[in-house]
Amino acid sequence: MRAHIVTYGCQMNEYDTHLVQSQLVSFGADIVDSVDVADFVLLNTCAIRGKPVEKVRSLLGDLRKIKARRPLVIGMMGCLAQLEEGQQMARKFGVDILLGPGSLLDIGKALESNERFWGLAFRDELHDHVPPAPAGQLQAHLTIMRGCDHHCTYCIVPTTRGPQVSRHPDDILRELDLQLAAGVQEVTLLGQNVNAYGVDQGARLGGYPTFANLLRLVGRSGVRRVKFTTSHPMNFTEDVAAAMADTPAICEYVHLPVQSGSNRVLRRMAREYTREQYLAHVADIKKHLPHVVLATDIIVGFPGETEDDFAQTLSLYDEVGYDSAYMFAYSARPGTPSYKHFDDLPREVKTERLERLIARQKDWSARKNAAKVGTTQEVLIRGEAHSDGFLEGHTRGNHPTIVPAAIGATGPGVYPVRIDHATPHMMYGTVLGPDGHPLPQVPRLDPQAAALSAPLSMA
Ligand code: 5AD
Ligand code: SF4
User: Fold this and answer.
1) What Rg do the C-alpha atoms of the chain give, in angstroms?
2) For residue 157, how far is its CA from the centre of ligand 1 (angstroms)?
3) What is the pTM of this model?
4) What is the mean pLDDT of the chain?
5) Could you report the per-residue pLDDT of 176-208, keeping only the tens digit for each?
6) Which of 164, 205, 274, 277 has fewest C-beta within 10 Å?
7) Which CATH architecture best describes the domain 125-368?
């Protein structure tokens, strides 16, 4: 079997793709990188906003046409598969296999079945399953929990991924060991709300560490860098910031989605915290980690958001000083409370506010990144950049970074890099040797082409 997987959505979905892909490989499948040569195409779908849903609809339309011409098995997994909206689509476009986020391990059964296979259960075995480490990569994801116990009124995830279930720490550490043995240097712990890790199990079974203690366990395993995403502010306790400060491997990067700066909107979103409580968390984090890099998620144009509410989002934004942000216009999702109870704002209002927020964020990113010029950052180089002779990677604070290849730094690895130049979205630097001086650059064959692609000209 030649299988091709297309992945939409978040890092959880990327992880799930890796998990299913490793299952397919264990059944003897070849993973191919184009639909044209595949006899099984699997779409790992996202349902968080209207756009990814529409992308899946149009791809399913294309696949149905291909299937009319030649044998093709079409599969659909991920968040959209769990929803009636996705199942309707699956029926319409002739999907053969449908697996919700809790049923991924049914992939074998599904492929053996001669009939249409629908898997929608949330199975506990998923949490014990340890997929093999990704081959030849310095970075890996590691799921520590699935699902979410919050009920933000705009969000479809509690419906698609079910209630929160934390994974047993032994399974997490076993997977981490495999990753370390495979050469992984940076691991990102994943969950819808990692800060609440263990809360669902602690009282009942005991023996689960708190998230702060899990961070310490992972941080002391020998892995070089640890990141985590994402955190609900309500569950962000000061001991997490303290664990970050006392465990050097934990990167000083915190993604703390705020969604809105207006208490009225936060209440309507059922976020369970106020602007003031959120700012108190940020103050705790900054106290323990003075050089923390802060990122957030913001939704603009939530139903009923007034110009004054939006002004409060902008002012909170300035008060915190985020290094980066994922910014979204509210997208009404069938099945969520806000879809049912509130009227959507006009699209122009949402777009206009989103543009203003993006402009504000760009100013902050420019300012924050400029402050890093002249500093030395630890950069994980993933490999070659688009322009010849350059390598790309990212810092402990997740800043995308480009460096010229240097003698002693021609490929993947973790290197100290002096930042020479920064734009709002990119840092440019020079790899330093053990003596703190720049390593000599790899001579380029065509100096003219190299000059054209020099970092400053890309700014
Ligand atoms: N519309 C727009 N953005 C949304 N998000 C979640 N649901 C919606 C929605 N209905 C955003 C939130 C969340 C991020 C993953 O996606 O900001 O943190
Ligand atoms: Fe990830 Fe949420 Fe999209 Fe599901 S709906 S793939 S959890 S972003």
Assistant:
1) 23
2) 9
3) 0.95
4) 95
5) 999 999 999 999 999 999 999 999 987 556 679
6) 205
7) Alpha-Beta Horseshoe (3.80)
For the chain, residues classed under CATH 3.40.50.12160 are 2-124
Distance in Å, CA 328 to ligand 1 centroid: 7
- CATH 2.40.50.140 segments of the chain: 372-453
Mutate to test the pocket of ligand 1, among 46, 153, 155, 232 (most ligand atoms within 8 A of CB): 155
Asked if residue 251 belongs to a known ligand binding site, the reply is no
Ligand 2 centroid to Cα of residue 445, in Å, is 45
Cα gap 418→406, rounded to integer Å: 13
Map tokens 């264990």 to a residue. Answer: 26
Over the stretch 430-443, which tens digit does the pLDDT of each residue have?
999 999 999 999 98
Measure the CA–CA gap between 97 and 116, rounded to whole angstroms: 6
CB 153 within 8 Å of CB 115:
no
Residues in the chain: 459
Between the CA of 156 and the centroid of ligand 2 the distance, in Å, is 8
Mutate to test the pocket of ligand 1, among 49, 156, 341 (most ligand atoms within 8 A of CB): 49
Q: Where in the chain is the domain with CATH 3.80.30.20?
A: 125-368
Q: Which CATH class is domain 372-453?
A: mainly beta
Residue 44 CA: which ligand 2 atom is closest? 6
Query: Which region, left, alpha or beta, applies to residue 122 given φ > 0 means left and ψ of -120 to 50 means alpha?
Result: beta
Q: Which ligand approaches the C-alpha of residue 44 most closely?
A: 2
2-124 to CATH, choices 3.30.200.20, 3.90.79.10, 3.40.50.12160, 1.10.3210.10: 3.40.50.12160
Q: At 124, is the pLDDT very low, low, confident or very high (cuts 50, 70, 90)? A: confident
Instruction: State the distance from the centre of ligand 2 to the C-alpha of 13, rounded, in angstroms.
Output: 7
- Give the residue whose CA is nearest to atom 7 of ligand 1: 155
Q: Which residues line ligand 2 (CB under 6 A)?
A: 9-10, 12-13, 46-48, 78-79, 156-157, 160-161
